[in-house]
Structures are given as structure tokens and as C-alpha cells.
Amino acid sequence: MLIKIASSNIRKNFSFYKLYIVSLTIIISMYVTFQSFAHDTIMLSKISQDGRVETISNTINIFFIGFVIFFMLYFNNFFIKKTSKELGIYSLLGFSKKKISLLLIYESIIITISSFLFSIFAGSILYIFINKALFTILEINDASLNQIINKTAVFNSFILILIMTLTIVISNIYELKKLTLINLVNYSKNKEKVIKNRPFVGVVGFLLLIIGYSLSINIINLQESIWVKIGYQPVALFVLCSTVLGTIIVIRYSVSLVLSKIRENKNILYAKISNIVIPRFIYRMNSKSKILIVVTLLVSGTVTMLSCQLLTNHYTLKANERINPSAIEYTLNNKDINSNVNKLSSTYNFNSSETEILQLKADSKDKIPYEYTKKQNHSFDVISYSDFKDLLKNQGNTYNFKKLKSGEGIFINYYPNDESLNQEYKLKLGNKNKFKTIKVVENTVSNSISFQNSIATLVVPDIDYNNMNLDDSIQRKTVFSLNGKGLRDNKEFYNEIHKVIKGTDKGFASSYARNSSIKEANVSTDLLLLFITVLLFITTGNMLYFTNLVETLNVKDEYFILSKMGYSFKMIKKIIRREIALMYIIPLILGILNGFFALICYRYMLVDTLIGNLQILKLPLIYTIAIFGTIYLIFYLITINSCKKTILEARVI
What we know:
Layout: H1 2-12, H2 14-38, H3 41-47, H4 52-82, H5 84-92, H6 97-137, H7 151-177, H8 181-185, H9 199-218, H10 226-230, H11 232-263, H12 266-269, H13 274-283, H14 285-323, E1 328-330, H15 335-343, H16 345-348, E2 351-360, H17 370-373, E3 380-384, H18 385-394, E4 408-412, E5 424-428, E6 435-444, E7 457-460, H19 462-468, E8 475-483, H20 491-501, E9 509-510, H21 511-554, H22 556-564, H23 569-605, H24 618-649
Parallel strand pairs: 3-7, 4-6
Antiparallel strand pairs: 1-8, 1-9, 2-3, 2-8, 4-7, 5-6
Helix pairs in contact: 1-2, 1-6, 2-4, 2-6, 2-7, 2-21, 4-7, 4-21, 6-7, 9-11, 11-13, 11-14, 11-23, 13-23, 14-21, 14-23, 14-24, 21-24, 23-24
Organism: Romboutsia sedimentorum
Main location: membrane
Keywords: Cell membrane, Membrane, Transmembrane, Transmembrane helix, Transport
């Protein structure tokens, strides 16, 4: 009998229950897709050789389940309120709380099973497209989809549904147990518990965020930072706790405090839109703060993950531009090889540069730089100012070095530092007792020759270079550099040159080959992080969309009252836009701030300082805000449109 009543309730109120079913189906579909990826043995065998994908997948499972359970509890609380009158009538008809609890359990089971079946189909279909796309992108031709429906993914999703159902059942029993009959009937009309203004707590929230952000910036000081003096792990843990706790307190208390202060401004409050939006938002801050906290943490995680992934990829490309500044380099000084290489210039339109490097030892009393000691054969690689300038120009790099005087030099650092600045080096010129002293007047990280072929490079004036080069006993080597527009990532150009060189040259360096090897090594992690980022995008948007839709349904009677008070539909639409904007803007601002400072920590904790400092964050941050902002805006517009339709369909105006 109870099962029939539960089924009948769902059928009669399907327009009401469909929100629950659709939101649940979307979230579980994402989970099924993710699990299908994480347990596709054929795909993993192609992209994961070190177990990183499996480890990250298992970690994400825990966080995802936590977010889903919270989201479902939030929704369930709303649905209990909406059905409270109906449950009260059942109680008046003689239904015990046990029977009412069973009725809710049956409804939950029917809804979750329906969502589960839909999500298996939708998630599996989505993964088929993703699988095909991955095989195409990675150029994997000797593999195919393991199975249309991944049994492990289905089983794990069933476990998730089971956990969610049990959680909801326990929550419902707990709520019903503490309600009397009269409270059950009036449950939907219960007053919202208004958050009391606590200025001290609100200020503490801001202070915690400021402390977390300040410590994040402090890492820029490197060896002088608190991170080095105390230790990276304890400081990172403190920053994480301070930021998360500060975010929670700011949303819980500081936002309502700020809005209360705004409400005290009569010019702002006594306006047709503000006198509805601000008081109502403050009044419902208790329930809204919970979803705002979760969404803000999701936004923070999404922004952090996306920006860190973009930074890693951007850093890899920038680092390769330094490590291999030319498209191709080789050291085989053979006339036939050089002739065959030059024959390809008409096809690929490249510039060929020849740089002779003098390998000169410094006097033992000199304070030699770090790069000098790391060479197998301790020496400076000395090149002429003209060769240096011409190479940079051919590589498309900006040249802004001052002209050198005799006895001056530019030292090329591997890591950015001023260790050799203003140092004088007494260079021995061959076997004869001749020396030339060079003073370093400028340091740079703009190397023109790959580190494979030259390290501890010293640029000297042409006149000094020519005088040094007179002695035949000086050790030297020649580097040939090939550059041209679009050749750094040209596979065909690399293959043609490699055929000529035939892989016998230890000094052969290719920008394309290095980029390809890095991409192959990191493809599994990049794909998984991209997949997780998309998952977080959809989860965040889904939460905001359905939360606002549910809130609009919850207050539709209030819009009816506003229409009777003379508010036009145009004004009501503005009220809806403002209220939804607050729900979107608060997580967006805090999430981007949290993600930005997390990106700074990631930059200095895990990314090498080989390329620049904070300047390298510019592009990843711009792309992150652009991508996230666009997707966020799309969800915002969809949410507004759906909420407007909901009000129209409810015929309250």
C-alpha cells in the first residue's frame, strides 16, 4: 500500500519531483563517466604507466562523494518542507511516524533507482564519445572501447547511490522524530533561523583570509620566506586551514554583516528592487550560507586545478623555449651533412646560424659561478656578442642588451640570480701563459644556445673574442642552429633533419622532440586533471542552477504578493536577476581569490624558478578567468531563464 502511495505521489507531482530526479541524474552521470574512465583498463594501459591516474581517481572519489551527499541532503530538506502538509494529513489520517518514514524511504528509493538507471545510460554514452575523442587526440589506433557499460563503474555508482539513500533515510527519520503533528503540518511555514550579526566573528573571518593570503605571498621571498624557515608542509597546512576557515566564516557571518550595513543606508534600501532583495537575502542567509560555502569551496578547487594545470603546461612550453631556444641544433661539423641540411632551406624557409664556442678555463682563484662547476669539463663557453645578438634575432627573441666594451661580458644564468654580477674572471687563453680578464656587467636568462650544448656561457665583445680565438690550442666546438617561423613544432621538419643527422650527433637538440616527449610523459595526468576540472565545472553549475531554481519555487507565493502590490513582471525579473547574481558573485569572487593565492603557492612550491617569477602567472590566470567566467556566465543565464519560466508557469503574476 505504501509503495502504491509513494508511486502515486511521484506521478501526480512529477513536475515537482523532476527537479530532484534531473539533478541527481546529472551528478551521477558525471560520476559514472568518471568511473568508466578510471577503470577502463585499455585506456589506462595506454596513458598510465606509473599509477598516477589510479591514485588521483581514488582520491577524487572521496571528495566527490562528500559533495554529492551534502547536495542531496540540501535538496532533501527542501522537499521535506514542500511535502510537509501532505505528510501532516497522513498523520491526521492515522499514519504513524514509522509508516510516514517508510513512505519517504519508498519515494527516495524510487527516485534514486530511476536516477541511477538514467545515469548509467547517460554516463556510458558520454564516456563513449570521450573515449573516441581521447583515442583520436592521442593518435591511438591499436585499441578500442573495452566495454560499452563498465561493470566496475556501475558497481561503484550503485555504492554511491546506496550511501546517498541511507544518508537521506537517516536524515528523514531524524527530522520526523523530532517533529510533533502540529509542527509537521506547519513545517513549511517555519521561520528561517536568522543569523545574528557578530561583528567580531565577521572581522575574524576577514583576518583569517588576510593571514592566509599574506603567507601565500610571503613564499615569493624564497630563502628569506617563512616557508623555508619553518617548513613548507606546516605552513601550507596552516594556509589551507586559515583560508578554508576564513572562507566559511566570511560567508556565514561577514556577508550578512556587510548586507546589514548596506541595509542601514536609506538611499540604497528604499529602492524598488533593493528593499526586496537585500532584506530577503539576509533573512534566508542561514540556509543560503550552507550552499554558498560548498559552492565557494568547489569554485576555489576548480579555479586552483584549472589554473595550476594551465601554468604547468605554459611553464613547460616556456621552459622548452629556454632549454631549446632554436628549432634544431646540431654539432656535427661535416660538409656533406651541412650541404644536405641547407638543401631543405627552400622547402622549410629556415635560417642557419653557425656559432663557434671557445672553452676557456678560469683562474683557480676566481669565484666561479654555479654553472661552471656543473660542467663535466670545467670551463666557460665563450661566444661573441655578434653571434649572440644574431641568434636571438633569428629565434624571434627580443634583444635589449647594451653594447659591451672591451673587458666586459654578459653571463647567461641557468637559474635567475646575480651570483656572477660584477665578478671578474681571468680566462686562460690556450697552452701559452696568456690571460684575458672579463668583468660581468650583466646577467641574463636569455640563452641563445641550448643547455645541452652550452652552459656557463659568457658573451664577450667581438674584439675580445677575435683576440682570444688566435690560439689554435684553445678547445672549441661549433654549434649549428636552425630557426624559422612555425618550425619549433613542425613534425615534418624535425623528421627531415633527423634523417640527415641520422641520430649520431650527441649535440642534436630539437624543440619538437622535447615537447613531444614531455607531452607523452604527462598526458595521463593532464587528461585526468582536465576530466576532473570538467566534472567540477558541471557539479558547481549544477548546484547553483538547481539551488536557485528550488529557492524560486520556495518563494513563488511572495512573487504573487509583489505582483498584487504593483510590481510589474519586468521589475520582478530584475529582482530574480539580483538575487541570483548574489548567489553567483559571492562564490566567484572568493573562489577566484582563493585560487589565485593557491596558484602563487603552487608556482613557488612545485614549479621550478627557471622561468621568471610572478610574470609567468599572467597568461594562466587570464585563461582561467576567461574559461571559468564564460562557463559561469552561461550557467547564470540559464538559471535566470529557468527561474523566470518557473514564475510564469506557476501563474503567480
